[in-house]
Amino acid sequence: MAADRSYYSGEHRRHGTNIQVLAAPDGTLLWTSGSLPGSAHDLTAARIWGIPHRLKTTGLITLADKGYIGAGEHVRVPYKGRNKPTSQKDANPAHARLRGPGERANAQLKAWRILRKLHCCPLRAGQLVKAILTLQLREAR
């Protein structure tokens, strides 16, 4: 199908999607985006969905990986580079520890068998993830 060509990776020989996920500090899933082609950069995807702008307008701060460098002051990323001062070297593991619950939230999504090998158009992956989010939130109550 022509609509899903942008989702196909010739290198990996499969379709890939980029879905943005926001989780609470305790790892509870809060929001998921629709799907974009897997080749979309994380920061580009976040900007398409308006995440940095909404964080700025609400005054919330979030932790992210190095794929979000340049997202703005409300998105905290680890320090990069080799010759960092000791304070920055100590800050990066602390940043990773704080991000851990959010990474577990992503792992919970990926554990759903239906997402491992999609048998539908990749455009629907975002809808599937939103349905899974609803099921997980309902189960948590």
Automatic annotation (TrEMBL):
Residues 3-135 form the DDE Tnp4 domain. GO terms for molecular function: metal ion binding. Keywords: Metal-binding. InterPro entries: HARBI1_dom (IPR027806). Its cofactor is a divalent metal cation. It holds the Pfam family DDE_Tnp_4. Residues 78-101 are annotated as: Disordered. This is DDE Tnp4 domain-containing protein. It comes from Streptosporangium saharense.
